TrEMBL record:
Pfam families: LptD_2. PANTHER family: LPS-ASSEMBLY PROTEIN (PTHR30189), LPS-ASSEMBLY PROTEIN LPTD (PTHR30189:SF1). This is Organic solvent tolerance protein OstA. Residues 208-679 form the LPS-assembly protein LptD central domain. It comes from Chryseobacterium hagamense. Keywords: Signal. Residues 1-23 form the signal peptide.
Length: 862
């Protein structure tokens, strides 16, 4: 405890020294008048100066003037206005001889002040019990003055105003407690007390300078005592040094975290540079720039560059790793320009950045579990009179598992809005021709897959591919025989690329080699579809008075035929052959692995089917105003597949079944999918891969997935209790009502949430005998122990490995002026905790705080 207090006192002293250094100013001197009087004082008529330099306006319910003593007395609802000052009080006296105004607040029968004196000057409001002002010297003395400054308030037993800029206060306290400031509570939950405080005010800013100052929490003095304090107040941004936190760790040594400098740049920008320094060699540099222009745009740019050093140089445990992160967020206001929009979401990191154990932030926010990171910059241009949208994109996708990254720079898409090819003669479209629509566009892509070491180097540019693709989609539909919808469609693809491949078998190396050819090449493909769809309804009504009144089944069957030529034929030139190690002729596409894809091979003349289902049930319900309640048994249940008449083998496709439903008043959501192979698969002993035979009718399960989620909360289970009717005793804390039973136990609503997620997946194919299974249950939720205590957490249990995965437990406390947070990862690869307590107000948030955290260390117990 003593160590912690000493640590905090030392940190606050550093803060105050830096603030004192920044707050030093050269006092402004009043210019002396260098002009001398040329007229002798003997020849000058001296006019006696008036005691008042302006009109003194007074009003009160009762006014009395004593001419002999030159006194004015104002009683009840008294008010005085003089220059820029206004005084409102229950009693005011004005001594015209001594040039002194005295004001006192309203008293009760015992002489206690129950309503303060309100003094307004220069836009500031001061509350006092007694107030005295000298109109000649402009000095004032106030008792029990209450002055609001920036985010806080100062209350002093005695305040003396020397001039409009300097106020001296005795036995004063300062607090940022919002409830105390707004007079919702008569006692502050914390304050800083000093015997002497000086308030210095200028046109643009003000500051508090105090002697020895002590912190009190709930009226209890704490060991936190500082020899002096300087608190600057300003509505404008100002440059300054950012005070670091410090400590010692076994793995990295002594450290300073967050040492930096803040610098405003003009009206719309600011810059903050932070540094972390460790005595064993580790370091981090974190610049951050924020910018905003109202009604136009806002954004943030940040970077994190550093080196992590672990162990002792020369020993086996020594390691040195460089890490970096570059992030940029830009958002354009929707009102700025509807025809030209720009947005950016860039977050590029080194492969081991999130595993940097110099801090645990990335563990607690679960970034350390990321396997993929995506960055995108997008520029979109629209036109007022043209049905065209042009979108330019640059994207970067990182895969931390493989270490490879996909870069698309730039990517441009020109989309033409859908239009009808033929006009309507009657204004109402009917028939196939009038309903014929065209969708088309052009997509240009530059793509490369690279690793971190090759980024923007010659090796990356050598692998870069450029592709141009145009798609034209035609579609139309009409009603046939009143109940059927007949649709026709055609799809045309045209593609160009700068790279193709040649494959051949090398007997010396005993492997198939691939050579890349640079040069423009392309292909064109097309396909056509025709489909017929209708909707069928069926209802089963039950006996009157039964619990189930009816079941309705809606079925949407559709059949369609798709035709596509065999673009793998020699006449097109899109496919070639090579002889493998066994001398077998093996076909391949020259566009294989390219960014524009490969044209389909094999003639397609397939008849496809899809059957959609929706099943609802009507049940009797006393809670519903209609007396009937609808329950969805299946929101959707779809069965689909196709048969390819042109296929030489395996004409039937995989049969897929997808279902979605919800139960318990739509709270439990269930999504399922099932894949069935209609052909028998034979697995030969000793071989992992199987053989798909022509034996039809076995329908083996190739894939099954079910996902369930159920959100629970206190609102779902039971109605909210009206404690005011149940209990007679009542209390109030911070505008929250508490009710007490006969044993004086408090009762209040304890809100809670609990989200349950379950997932099961089964995958099997002819390529592998061993199926892949995944089964897990996840929980996350929160519980309010009291209106100001909140517990939250999440966990994940893998039922296959029978182990708990990432688990986090945390609690937070709203202490009115304080915030307390604790987060803990108790087990797993990353075991850390983080504790923080600090003042909410910005003026003291960096000074009065305490933070403690653990750090993951290699091969070290938690």
């Amino acid at each position: 405890m003593v160590k912690t207090v000493s640590k905090n006192i030392l940190q606050i002293l550093i803060i105050l020294i830096f603030n004192n250094f920044l707050a030093q100013q050269t006092p402004e001197k009043l210019p002396e008048n260098p002009v001398n009087d040329t007229i002798s004082r003997k020849d000058t008529v001296v006019v006696k100066k008036e005691s008042l330099e302006d009109v003194l306006r007074t009003k009160a319910d009762v006014q009395r003037r004593d001419f002999q003593k030159k006194m004015i007395y104002l009683n009840r609802n008294a008010q005085v206005k003089y220059q820029d000052m206004q005084i409102d009080a229950d009693y005011i006296s004005i001594d015209e001889q001594k040039n002194i105004m005295y004001a006192r607040g309203k008293q009760d029968s015992l002489g206690k002040i129950i309503e303060p004196v309100i003094t307004t000057q220069g836009g500031k409001i001061y509350e006092t019990t007694e107030f005295q002002y000298n109109t000649k010297t402009r000095q004032a003395i106030a008792f029990n003055a209450r002055t609001e400054e920036n985010e806080g308030v100062i209350v002093a037993n005695k305040t003396k105003k020397y001039n409009d800029s300097v106020f001296a206060m005795k036995r004063a306290i300062y607090t940022t407690d919002d409830y105390f400031i707004k007079k919702k509570d008569t006692a502050a939950d914390y304050y800083l007390r000093a015997s002497n405080i000086k308030l210095v005010k200028t046109r643009n800013k003000s500051s508090i300078i105090s002697g020895p100052i002590q912190m009190y929490i709930e009226e209890v003095p704490t060991p936190l005592i500082m020899p002096f304090a300087i608190l600057p107040f300003s509505d404008k941004r100002s440059a300054g040094i950012l005070i670091p936190s410090f400590g010692e760790r076994q793995d990295v040594g002594f450290f300073l975290n967050g040492l930096g400098y803040y610098q405003p740049i003009g009206e719309h920008f600011d810059l903050k540079v932070l540094a972390d320094i460790y005595t064993k060699g580790s370091w981090n540099l974190r610049p951050e720039m924020n910018y905003i222009k109202k009604y136009r745009y806002s954004g943030n740019f940040s970077a994190d560059v550093g080196t992590m050093v672990r162990g002792i140089k020369g020993l086996d445990n020594y390691g040195k790793t460089g890490t970096y992160r570059i992030a940029w967020r830009h958002t354009q206001d929707t009102k700025a320009n509807p025809f030209l929009t720009f947005s950016a979401s860039v977050d590029v990191v080194s492969t081991k950045f999130y595993n940097n154990t110099l801090n645990n932030n990335y563990i607690l926010n679960q970034n350390v579990l990321n396997t993929q990171q995506n960055s995108t910059v997008t520029l979109t241009k629209r036109f007022l009179k043209l049905p065209v949208t042009i979108t330019g994109t640059a994207s970067y996708s990182q895969n931390f598992a493989t270490g490879l990254s996909d870069l698309r720079l730039p990517q441009m898409n020109i989309a033409i809005n859908q239009f009808y090819l033929f006009g309507s003669k009657t204004g109402v479209r009917s028939g196939l021709l009038e309903n014929l629509t065209v969708n088309t566009g052009i997509n240009l892509t530059n793509f490369v897959q690279t690793n971190e070491g090759e980024l923007f180097k010659a090796a990356m540019w050598d692998k870069l591919q450029t592709g141009l693709k145009n798609n034209i989609a035609l579609g139309t539909n009409t009603t046939v025989a009143k109940y059927f919808t007949f649709s026709l469609g055609a799809n045309i693809d045209n593609a160009l690329t700068t790279k193709t491949v040649d494959k051949f078998y090398d007997p010396i190396q005993n492997k198939v080699l691939t050579e890349t050819n640079k040069g423009v090449s392309g292909y064109s493909t097309f396909s056509t579809t025709a489909s017929l769809q209708t909707t069928l309804y069926g209802t089963k009504n039950f006996k009157k008075g039964s619990a189930i009144e009816a079941i309705r089944h809606m079925m949407t069957p559709s059949i369609g035929f798709t035709y596509s030529p065999d673009f793998g034929g020699s006449g097109f030139g899109y496919y070639r052959n090579y002889y493998d190690a066994n001398g077998a002729l093996t076909p391949y596409s020259i566009f294989e692995g390219g960014i524009i894809g490969s044209p389909s091979s094999g003639l397609v003349g397939a008849l496809g089917f899809n059957i959609g289902n929706n099943v609802e049930m009507k049940v009797r319900s006393k809670k519903d105003s209609t007396g009937v309640k609808k329950i969805k048994l299946f929101e959707s249940l779809n069965l689909s597949g196709n048969y390819n008449f042109a296929a030489k083998d395996h004409p039937f496709s995989i049969i897929t079944v997808n279902g979605q439903s919800s139960f318990f008043n739509n709270k439990l959501s269930v999504n399922t999918s099932l894949s069935l192979d209609p052909y028998r698969i034979i697995y030969i002993p000793g071989q992992e891969a199987g053989i798909r035979t022509e034996n039809f009718g076995h329908f083996s399960v190739q894939g099954f997935n079910v996902q369930m989620s159920y959100p629970l909360s206190s609102e779902i289970f039971g109605e909210k209790t009206d404690y005011s009717k149940k209990y007679s005793k009542k209390g109030e804390i911070r505008n929250e009502n508490y009710y007490f039973d006969d044993d004086n136990y408090a009762h209040f609503d304890q809100a809670w949430t609990l989200n349950i997620n379950a997932n099961y997946a089964y995958t099997r194919s002819s390529a592998s005998r061993t199926p892949t299974k995944l089964a897990s249950v996840g929980l996350d939720g929160s519980l309010k122990l009291t209106p100001y205590w909140n517990i939250n957490g999440s966990t994940h249990y893998d039922m296959v490995t029978q182990q708990l995965a990432y688990t986090r437990i945390g609690f937070s406390r709203d202490q009115r002026s304080f915030t307390i947070n604790f987060n803990w990862v108790p087990f797993g690869q990353y075991k850390v905790y983080d504790f923080f307590i600090g003042i909410k107000a910005n003026i003291l948030s960096d000074a009065l705080k305490y933070k403690d955290r653990s750090f993951t260390q290699p091969n070290a117990p938690f």
